[in-house]
Design brief:
The protein is α/β, with parallel strands linked by helices. It contains 13 helices and 12 strands. It folds into 2 domains: 168 residues, Rossmann fold (3-Layer(aba) Sandwich); 178 residues, Glycogen Phosphorylase B (Rossmann fold, 3-Layer(aba) Sandwich). The protein is globular and about 70 Å long.
Length: 368
């Protein structure tokens, strides 16, 4: 079919199956592009499959890419994690490039490729994948700098994650007015219960604080046999009086579970932390983020901003002092919660969709 007749977008991404952050993003991309273009979806959500079934599924996806080759003139490819996925992305891109679309856009979600001091063969394959894309979408300025310096990729566009829910400003103001006479401070942990995600640091901070601060832990316990599972379980079984464990909370249930929360303490040292969606979601609820000063926080909390606080790794005394200050200064809490909510507007679903649609239409980043 001649190029002049080809019109539409081949969307190769994890669209069906297990609910993950990347799948949620991919579905939002599909809905955004379907408003103005014909979209030809190819699902690549095979993370729950074993190795053999995953390989078969990838081969099936490649066959569907070839089968639709005469219909599309642009391609959106969501880069996936793991060496098998990187290898198949390479094969996908070879096939896609042979079809000669006018635009190929790759979407990077994680930081895995930036966390190895001695890049190996998989990194070289990933570098080739990047080079076969006309444009690459990344999450933040750190990733953009890494793509430029480590992989010499120049055509990078920052499109951050988005919050799938949040409070209207009027409701935030209602909650702030209701908390003023109540006083005190409510702090939460919301993540996987892993040492690298900061659960131990969170519990240490809870044990170090004085009266007037309540701590809530939300998260799924590690499976038996996982590293540190026993140690974390023992800590949860012996919580201080100011701390409660609520287990995992999903979807819209977070709206009610987070209603009394003032601060999310996210002391993660997880090596491949990219851009924690939970921080954006908490900010959209007017919750103040307190995080370690690592690349994942670079675009979420600007320096000298009231929208949140970045502290050095393991600076637990500084965190305790900050929480005591917030407990004793309700006006400061109000100001910072408003600033967090305002900051979250930079990570809206509508802005995300506009950015993706503009890039896939024009091949250029949307100007803000």
């Amino acid at each position: 079919m001649a190029d002049g007749v080809r019109q539409g977008i081949l969307l190769v991404a994890p669209l069906e199956g297990a609910v993950t952050g990347q799948a949620e993003i991919s579905r939002a991309v599909a809905r955004a592009l379907a408003r103005t273009d014909k979209v030809f979806p190819i699902n690549t959500n095979f993370e729950s499959l074993g190795t053999v079934r995953k390989v078969r599924a990838q081969i099936g996806a490649m066959a569907r890419i070839i089968g639709k080759s005469g219909r599309y003139d642009r391609v959106y490819l969501s880069f996936k994690r793991g060496w098998i996925s990187v290898l198949f992305d390479y094969i996908f891109l070879l096939v896609i490039r042979a079809m000669r679309p006018r635009l190929v856009v790759g979407h990077l979600h994680g930081n895995e490729m930036f966390c190895n001091e001695k890049p190996g063969r998989i990194h070289r394959i990933f570098a080739r994948n990047l080079k076969m894309c006309d444009q690459v979408i990344c999450l933040n300025s750190y990733q953009k700098d890494q793509l430029a310096t480590v992989f010499q990729m120049k055509n990078c566009n920052v499109v951050p994650n988005f919050s799938s829910f949040g409070l209207p400003q009027s409701e935030l103001e209602t909650r702030l007015s209701e908390r003023q006479p109540r006083g005190g401070l409510n702090v939460m942990y919301f993540s996987n219960l892993m040492v690298e995600k900061g659960i131990m640091d969170f519990l240490d901070v809870a044990a170090m604080t004085e009266d007037g601060i309540q701590f809530s832990v939300f998260g799924k316990p590690l499976k038996e046999g996982a590293p540190d599972a026993i140690t974390i379980r023992e800590r949860l079984d012996d919580l201080p009086a100011n701390t409660r464990y609520f287990g995992p909370v999903y979807g819209d249930d977070r709206l009610s579970a987070w209603a009394p929360i003032d601060v999310i303490l996210f002391p993660s040292t997880y090596a491949t932390e990219a851009q924690p969606l939970v921080i954006i979601e908490a900010m959209s609820m007017g919750i103040i983020p307190v995080v370690y000063d690592r690349p994942y926080a670079s675009d979420l909390i600007p320096p000298q901003s009231d929208a949140g606080v970045r502290v050095q790794d393991r600076a637990l005394n500084d965190i305790v002092a900050l929480l005591h200050r917030l407990r004793d200064d309700p006006e400061l809490v109000t100001r910072m919660r408003r600033a967090a909510w305002t900051g979250a507007q930079n990570f809206s679903r509508d802005r995300f969709k506009r950015s993706i649609a503009t890039l896939m239409q024009t091949g250029e980043e949307e100007q803000h």
